[in-house]
Design goal:
It is a single chain. The chain is α+β, with helices and mostly antiparallel strands and 583 residues long. It has five domains: 90 residues, DNA Primase, Chain A; 129 residues, DNA primase, catalytic core, N-terminal domain (DNA primase DNAg catalytic core, N-terminal domain), CATH 3.90.980; 113 residues, Dna Topoisomerase Vi A Subunit, Chain: A, domain 2 (3-Layer(aba) Sandwich); 73 residues, Up-down Bundle (Pheromone ER-1), CATH 1.20.50; 135 residues. 53% of the residues lie in helices and 11% in strands. It has 27 helices and 16 strands. Helix 3 packs across helix 4 and helix 17 crosses helix 19. The chain is globular.
Length: 583
């Protein structure tokens, strides 16, 4: 029997399996490594230890157990991480009192109940059946309707609000979930349904929990938006959510490519045609947040949406960001006037063929630029270079960049040196938005003494026989946490971890992983240990000298000559000791 749900979940769920569903892990010895999902890096510094069931990034300093990983990557509190992992592990959590529920948990419940309400309306109401017939006419089959939990919002003012309030939820909570709109007058404040007379597409987070909704009008009226989305809420932000990623992430990793479409129907029909590595950017253009999420799974993107790069600044900006992040971008060229849903509903194999014939983003830009301007005229050469030089400038790989410089020079029939000269003049606009979303926490919060103690214990764990180099008086100079770990190791190496306090256990596990992944030459370990011990002693003496200096100052102010003489002798003693140590 397990003493708590936390313990039961940790015993049932493997940390490697959970983390590998978010990022690509590669085995390295007894551990796994990856590019850190929490900060930008070129070389992997993120490690997972299956033996210890912990993870740590030695680049940004984040780390912890499986719960901490879910909290970090999903941006949730511990209670939400517990629920996510309990669902994954098949652990039943006991119901908690409503007043103990977190705000996020209540919003999840409201969204789930709303989804059930919309699903029932689609299947059972007369208007819902009309909406269902429309979906079937678009080629969406019954299985897809169930899989994507499609629904219908009645064309009435308060059907959903009344239903949710009958389940005990407050008006303000329904508004916060993005499902209701407030109507305020000087005498009253009422709410009404946000979605009315619309086909409903529930939007899921990475754990397939409903966080928001998209609604398509069933009967088009002049002045009515064709699509509306849930506004930003505590659960949902359209700039951070990719529709369908919960169902596509495994296939994206398997195929090492993601196909991006614009609409809900495009995505559903793609999955229905077994093109299951498809995700949608619904209600927005490609954002830095989307890119940072996709980077966890793949570095190849197929863009299957309107590529009016001259007219749509937001689309072009998203592509520019993806290019600067090193994504391998492919352009899906669709028949004029058709979107992916049109092509797939007519002939799924035709869309597969289109995907096989994609061109790279650079080829697309070249074709586009040379089709618009005459390359044999000075004006044409100038306009073509104006389009292509910034694109080439954004290529992070210099070898690849050189290839396209050569190609442009050849196509324009000019010397390469002139192209390079113009390229140097291009100033790219910096965009810090991606960095802001994944900026690493400071890893300098530890004092120099704490850093030296961590290094010391790491060296001991790397080569246990060197524990004998530590004398008791040296251990006594260390912090209580370091003392606890080292004294228990001296007492019984094999049982040391079991005797540690929870805080010391956490530190011990982290340093054990660090000892495994850090490359240190065995013969250099004794000298490294001596250096750490000496530096810790230096810090202790400096601290003592600082303390004595304060005492001398106080004695001088109080004119206490006896104390002043005593402290001055002590100061000279420790100063000499420090000098000898430094020699």
């Amino acid at each position: 029997m397990f003493s708590s749900p936390v313990e039961e979940i940790k015993n049932r769920v493997d940390i490697v399996e959970v983390i590998s569903s978010y990022i690509t892990l590669k085995k390295t010895g007894a551990n796994y490594k990856a590019l850190c999902p929490f900060h930008s890096e070129k070389n992997p510094s993120f490690f997972v230890s299956p033996a210890r069931q912990i993870w740590h990034c030695f680049g940004c300093g984040r780390g912890g157990d499986i719960f901490k990983f879910i909290m970090e990557i999903e941006g949730v509190e511990f209670g939400d991480a517990l629920r996510i992992l309990a669902q994954r592990a098949g652990v039943e959590l006991k119901p908690i009192k409503p007043e103990w529920q977190t705000e996020r948990q209540k919003l999840y419940e409201i969204c789930e109940l709303a989804t059930l309400f919309f699903e029932k309306q689609l299947q059972e109401s007369s208007s819902g059946r009309e909406a269902k017939n429309y979906l079937l006419s678009r080629g969406i089959n019954e299985d897809s309707i169930k899989k994507w939990r499609l629904g219908y919002a009645p064309a009435t003012w308060r059907s959903l609000c009344d239903f949710l309030m009958s389940k005990g939820y407050k008006r303000q909570e329904i508004v916060k979930a993005g499902l209701a709109v407030e109507s305020k007058t000087s005498t009253s404040c009422n709410i009404y349904d946000r979605f009315r007379g619309r086909i409903i597409f529930p939007i899921f987070d990475l754990n397939s929990q409903v966080v928001g909704f998209g609604g398509r009008i069933l009967k088009e009226n002049e002045g009515t938006a064709k699509y509306i989305n849930t506004p930003n809420t505590l659960l949902y932000d359209k700039s951070k959510v990719l529709y369908g990623l919960d169902k596509a992430k495994v296939e994206i990793r398997k195929k090492n490519a993601a196909i991006l479409v614009e609409g809900y129907t495009d995505l559903i029909l793609a999955h229905q045609a077994k093109i299951e590595n498809t995700v949608a950017v619904s209600g927005t253009s490609l954002t830095p947040y989307h890119l940072s999420i996709l980077k966890r799974y793949t570095d190849t993107l197929f863009l299957a949406f309107d590529m009016d790069i001259a007219g749509d600044f937001a689309t072009k900006r998203g592509i520019d960001l993806a290019q600067m992040q090193g994504f391998n971008l492919k352009i899906v060229t669709l028949p004029e006037g058709k979107d992916p849903a049109d092509v797939i509903s007519e002939n799924p194999s035709a869309f597969q063929k289109i995907l096989q014939n994609c061109v790279s983003i650079l080829d697309f830009y070249f074709q586009n630029a040379f089709s618009k301007f005459e390359k044999n005229t000075p004006e044409g050469k100038k306009e073509i270079s104006k389009i292509l030089l910034p694109v080439i400038k954004r290529i992070p790989n210099k070898i690849e960049q050189s290839f396209w410089v050569n190609k442009l020079a050849k196509e324009l029939e000019v010397e390469r040196e002139y192209v390079e000269e113009e390229l140097r003049k291009i100033k790219l606009e910096k965009d810090h938005s991606v960095q802001e979303t994944v900026s690493p926490p400071s890893i300098t919060s530890l004092s120099r003494k704490e850093l030296l103690e961590e290094k010391l214990i790491t060296l001991i764990l790397k080569e246990p026989k060197n524990l004998n180099l530590l004398e008791e008086e040296q251990i006594a100079q260390l912090s209580s946490l370091a003392r606890e770990i080292l004294l228990n190791l001296k007492k019984d190496w094999n049982l040391a971890r079991e005797k540690l306090s929870p805080q010391a256990k956490e530190k011990f596990d982290y340093l054990g992983l660090r000892a495994e992944v850090e490359e240190i030459e065995t013969e250099k370990i004794p000298s490294e240990i001596s250096f750490c011990l000496k530096e810790i002693q230096v810090l202790a003496i400096k601290e003592k000298l600082n303390e004595i200096s304060k005492g001398i100052k106080k004695a001088e102010e109080e004119k206490d000559l006896k104390i002043l003489e005593k402290l001055t002798k002590e100061f000279h003693f420790y100063s000499q000791l420090l000098s000898d140590l430094k020699k």
